[in-house]
Amino acid sequence: MERSPNLLDEALGFNHQLSASSLRGRAVFIEDCLETSGSFVLHHLIKHFLSLHSSAGVVFVAFAQPLSHYERILRKLQGCNLLTQRNNNRFFFIDMLNLDCADGETSEGELAALYGKIQKAVEAIEATGNNGNSISVMIDDISLMEVAANGSSHHVLDFLHYCYTLTSEFGCSVIALNHEDICSNTENSRLTLQMEYMADILIKAEPLATGLASDVHGQLTVLEKGFSDGQTSSRGKVHKFQFKVKENGADYFYPGTSV
């Protein structure tokens, strides 16, 4: 039985068949804060791409948690089994928890090596020939990547630009989570601004302006930038709605309509 798209799915252009094509070749950045985590959006997108109705592949780069963490959460989201998907070459997990760059040169070399691993994983999924060229590269999360890279936002930006080339070379989508307020220095602000500039779609998870509530955990803003390639064009769109995170997913609703 197919489920109907929720407000987040609709904002991202997902249809009833859960097609991954609406994000093909696009960069999606998720911004959150310490008070309101946006990790649930990343989990939702993993489940979306690896659902039975989709033939997409996922390359997941983890700076935040081990595989067991995501495996446990995804099993609760209608039984998505990451280990099975990994055995089927639809899910590649790159564990970066132990990356520790002592200096700038090490940082640059390690991130270059990471990009090489991502590219090989993308090529491996592409070689299966059954994914419809819908491949997503996901990063959790950019702020911890910057910490692991010894605070070098310059090298992190170079890495993201390399990843962005995959959107045109393979039609990949690049999806990354960033904790906007993990540090407030100038370099971090520059990184955030550059990510927002690169993004085709920006998703912001924010606390409610009215403060904490038991039945509402925060607000999502989905900003889709307009584009024009000379043949087709699209106007920018902004979607705003609230959410409540549950053990087996999240509910999305407009203000005053939560159940």
Mind explaining what this structure looks like?
- With 259 residues, the chain is α/β, with parallel strands linked by helices.
- 36% of the residues lie in helices and 24% in strands.
- It is built from eight helices and eleven strands.
- It has helices at 7-11, 39-49, 67-76, 82-87, 104-128, 142-148, 153-169, 186-198; strands at 27-32, 57-62, 91-95, 135-140, 173-179, 201-206, 218-224, 227-228, 233-234, 237-246, 249-253.
- The strands form two sheets. Strands 3-2-4-5-1-6-7-10-11 form a nine-stranded mixed sheet.
- Strand 8 (227-228) and strand 9 form a beta hairpin.
- Helix 7 packs parallel to helix 8 (186-198).
List its salient traits.
alpha/beta, globular, two-stranded antiparallel sheet, about 260 residues
Topology:
Elements: H1 7-11, E1 27-32, H2 39-49, E2 57-62, H3 67-76, H4 82-87, E3 91-95, H5 104-128, E4 135-140, H6 142-148, H7 153-169, E5 173-179, H8 186-198, E6 201-206, E7 218-224, E8 227-228, E9 233-234, E10 237-246, E11 249-253
Parallel strand pairs: 1-5, 1-6, 2-3, 2-4, 4-5
Antiparallel strand pairs: 6-7, 7-10, 8-9, 10-11
Helix pairs in contact: 5-7, 7-8
Short description:
The chain is α/β, with parallel strands linked by helices and 259 residues long.
